């Protein structure tokens, strides 16, 4: 039986709107028959009964409408994962009462199809539903930018930056959108709008401000834009990924599915050894005689999914994700189009980034560490400390050239550009090369594992006069935000030490040593 209390609880669980909460409270209070006097006439009771049933029916219809919306929303997102964008758009547009997130998704799909007027209209409605949704302002700013309405584009990017409230980024993962809106990206696009309007000085000011909000992954984006503004050249805008859409709450979606509370039959006793199989093998025919031969030793008992080895450590941020470290073996059940993989690890299921994994080829018919020619050949797990950690299998006794080639291939770097060390920087680096006694390295393996440290060889600056030191002049002031950065003022002379990469130099100024952006200084022509 449906009562007012049940309807109120259901609505408050699914809607956060104050309007629904107040309406449910009024229904619960007004439709309580205990408030009626005992001597009320039958006409009064019937009137109250019909009033209660009418309001309860309306609330039930509202609840069912939410469930239909949730089901269509989930179906549309599944179509996007399968690259069926037109079908997804049709489903989303057919939803009777879309919320702010659904309007955002509609706008993104129109934006992909270059339907700019429809995208603008959808983002307008999304912002109308939630005026604090910064990413919606950002996407509408992109729409205005593509329509060459740069003043309106700048205003929307400025509004998005205001909604960040001084934070470095907003992570929308908890709201169902796998995207992080960075403040430096918003300032980057504000600078681009100013550049299109011919305000190059304001554009540079926004990009310098973006350096205060920079993250390591977005650093090159800001540096390249700064270099472009110095030459008064336009650059590309920062955009949201085309597959980044708001997804419905997975716990609510799970409630839509039917559940089998009885479960399935499980073999608890059998005379056939293979009936202990833990996957989905069918039952074996029962015979009176026992097995002919001895039972083969089991190498691996996880048969569901494809085996993968974990390359990098992953720390979960939600309850649906799994914590893994390099060297763990997980079994991939399904890989989504958003680069997340559903895996099994230690009997638990969860999500792990697919690019953190590497597929393993496992042969269960042969014994481990046994070569095809019958000879014993052991493999060693090599853990490499770099800017991130990685692990790989290498045959023990391999020469230095083979080891360096395999590691450089994983790092996507040339083998002659990396330096390997068998000791940590804290203990003093012991650099390895072709003359290193590799037998001693492999013999130091502990339980088939060794640890190495990897670094990139620093590229020295070109100097036509070896005995002369190179200096550069600071074009702008730079205030360090990290311990390794170098602080200097406009006009300071800086002694160049090394070229870290294309965008960063290391130098000395005012008795301090550190790294700084190459775009902030004027480099001599013969030093480039």
From TrEMBL:
What are the boundaries of the signal sequence? none
SUPFAM superfamilies cross-referenced by the UniProt entry: CAD & PB1 domains, SH3-domain, TPR-like
Biological-process GO terms, alphabetical = superoxide anion generation
Question: What subcellular locations does the record give?
Answer: Cytoplasm
Say which family it is in: Belongs to the NCF2/NOXA1 family.
Q: Which gene encodes it?
A: NCF2_0
Which superkingdom? Eukaryota
Q: What is this protein called?
A: Neutrophil cytosol factor 2
Main subcellular localisation: cytoplasm
Q: Which UniProt keywords apply?
A: Cytoplasm, Repeat, SH3 domain, TPR repeat
Enumerate the spans annotated as SH3 domain.
303-362, 467-526
Question: Cross-referenced Pfam families, in alphabetical order?
Answer: SH3_1 (PF00018), SH3_9 (PF14604)
MF GO annotations: superoxide-generating NADPH oxidase activator activity
PANTHER family noted in UniProt:
NEUTROPHIL CYTOSOL FACTOR 2, NEUTROPHIL CYTOSOLIC FACTOR 2, NEUTROPHIL NADPH OXIDASE FACTOR 2
State a GO cellular component annotated for this protein: cytoplasm
Please tell me the species this chain comes from.
Merluccius polli (Benguela hake)
């Amino acid at each position: 039986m449906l009562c007012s209390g049940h309807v109120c609880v259901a609505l408050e669980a699914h809607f956060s709107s104050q309007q629904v909460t107040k309406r449910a409270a009024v229904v619960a209070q007004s439709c309580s028959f205990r408030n009626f006097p005992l001597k009320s006439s039958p006409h009064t009771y019937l009137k109250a009964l019909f009033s209660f049933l009418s309001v309860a029916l309306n609330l039930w219809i509202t609840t069912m409408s939410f469930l239909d919306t949730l089901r269509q929303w989930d179906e549309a997102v599944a179509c996007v994962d399968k690259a069926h964008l037109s079908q997804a758009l049709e489903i989303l547009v057919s939803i009777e009462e879309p919320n702010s997130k659904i309007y955002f998704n509609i706008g993104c799909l129109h934006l992909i199809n270059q339907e700019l007027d429809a995208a603008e209209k959808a983002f307008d409605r999304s912002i109308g539903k939630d005026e604090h949704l910064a990413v919606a302002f950002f996407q509408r700013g992109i729409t205005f930018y593509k329509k060459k309405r740069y003043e309106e584009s700048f205003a929307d990017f400025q509004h998005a930056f205001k909604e960040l409230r001084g934070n470095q980024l907003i992570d929308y993962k908890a709201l169902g959108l796998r995207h992080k809106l960075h403040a430096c990206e918003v300032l980057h696009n504000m600078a681009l709008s100013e550049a299109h309007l011919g305000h190059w000085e304001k554009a540079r000011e926004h990009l310098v401000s973006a350096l205060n909000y920079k993250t390591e992954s977005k650093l090159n984006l800001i540096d390249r834009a700064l270099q472009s503004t110095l030459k008064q050249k336009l650059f590309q805008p920062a955009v949201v990924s085309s597959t980044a859409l708001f997804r419905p709450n997975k716990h609510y979606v799970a409630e839509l599915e039917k559940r089998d509370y009885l479960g399935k039959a499980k073999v608890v006793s059998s005379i056939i050894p293979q009936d202990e199989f833990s996957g989905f093998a069918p039952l074996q025919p029962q015979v009176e005689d026992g097995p002919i031969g001895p039972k083969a030793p089991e190498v691996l008992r996880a048969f569901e999914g494809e085996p993968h080895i974990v390359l990098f450590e992953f720390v979960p941020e939600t309850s649906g994700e799994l914590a893994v470290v390099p060297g763990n073996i997980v079994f991939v059940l399904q890989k989504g189009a958003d680069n997340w993989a559903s895996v099994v690890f230690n009997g638990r299921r969860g999500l792990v980034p697919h690019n953190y994994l590497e597929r393993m080829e496992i042969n269960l018919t042969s014994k481990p560490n046994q070569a095809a020619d019958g000879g014993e050949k052991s493999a060693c797990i090599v853990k490499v400390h770099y800017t991130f950690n990685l692990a790989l299998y290498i045959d023990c006794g391999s020469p230095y050239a083979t080891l360096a080639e395999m590691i450089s291939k994983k790092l996507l770097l040339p083998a002659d550009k990396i330096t390997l060390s068998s000791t940590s920087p804290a203990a003093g680096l012991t650099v390895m090369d072709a003359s290193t006694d590799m037998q001693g390295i492999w013999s130091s393996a502990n339980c088939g594992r060794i640890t190495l440290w990897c670094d990139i060889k620093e590229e020295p600056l070109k100097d036509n006069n070896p005995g002369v030191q190179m200096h550069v002049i600071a074009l702008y002031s730079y205030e360090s935000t990290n311990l390794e950065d170098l602080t200097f003022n406009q006009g300071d002379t800086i002694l160049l030490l090394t070229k870290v990469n294309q965008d960063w130099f290391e130098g000395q100024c005012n008795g301090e040593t550190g790294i700084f952006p190459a775009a902030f200084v004027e480099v001599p022509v013969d030093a480039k």
